[in-house]
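Researcher: Next entry in the queue.
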Amino acid sequence: MTTSTIDGLVAFQAVAQARSFTKAGQALGLDKSRVSRVVSALEAALGQALLVRSTRSVSLTAEGEALFAKVSPLLAGLQEALSAAPDQPTVPAGEVTITTTADLGRAMLAPALASFRQRFPAVFVRVVLANDVVDLMGKGVDLALRVGHPGAGSFIARKVGSLEAGFFASPAYLERRGTPATQAELGTHDGLWPEVPKGQRSFSPGGAPPKPAVQCADFSLLAELAKLGAGIALLPTFLAPRDGSLVRVLPQVSLSNAPLYLVSRPVKPVPPRVRALSDWLVQHLRSAP
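Model: Structure for this entry, 289 residues:
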């Protein structure tokens, strides 16, 4: 007996008892339309009409009466057996899909996933890297790691940290071009930063930032250019290498902390595999430096 057959029998029993799809749905915590579809699927599988439906009432056919008499004690016994069984812990298993940017994926998500997989080897993670905001509902994505704004819609957002940004350059570049003492002097240097999105305040106190020598939304590429001496890069501090290949310029300038959110779909109940990864990321990212 398949799970769908059992679901159909439970729904049929509820309708037969209540003589109403609406009341059966309320008892089962399901939509009326869902109950109707499940019962119709059961009738199709059995090749028999079990209910007589009208706009005002629901009654049982002869086949429905016979099935109801047989199935009711069986379902009651099954429910009693399940109630008597000890609680079994649910082991998270299956696939979880998470999306974030390439920079966050490499620097922050990868270390968390490595330890997560050791703890939950039955959970398989599919990572979607994209700079654009991914539609979680439309693309079937469970979780998203986002900076600045969790996104519109009835999603569940948990703040897991804040990101700081600053200016960085290679020692060779600064030796060749000099070190700026103020933000205004950035206009005389080769800038490496992304385009400022519409509606967001520029890092430049004078309004629009100086036109960069290289404009790119991928901070990892900007960091590589800076290490090669191509200019002064605006980088999230978590991406700045600590091997001396880049040094902080204008250390007194610390750009506003951007909140980091873990966003999930409003699905209830939350599958154990999704809850396991979500809780793991919250704990890992909140404790990360």
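Model: The chain is about 40% helix and 20% strand.
Researcher: Noted, moving on.
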